Amino acid sequence: MSENATHGSWTPSGERLAAVTEEGVIAAIKTVFDPEIPVDIFELGLIYAIELGDDGKVKVEMTLTTPSCPSAQELPSMTEEAIRQIPGVTDCEVEVVWDPPWDQSRMSEDARLALNMF
Question: What percent of the chain has a predicted confidence (pLDDT) above 90?
Answer without folding.
Answer: 66
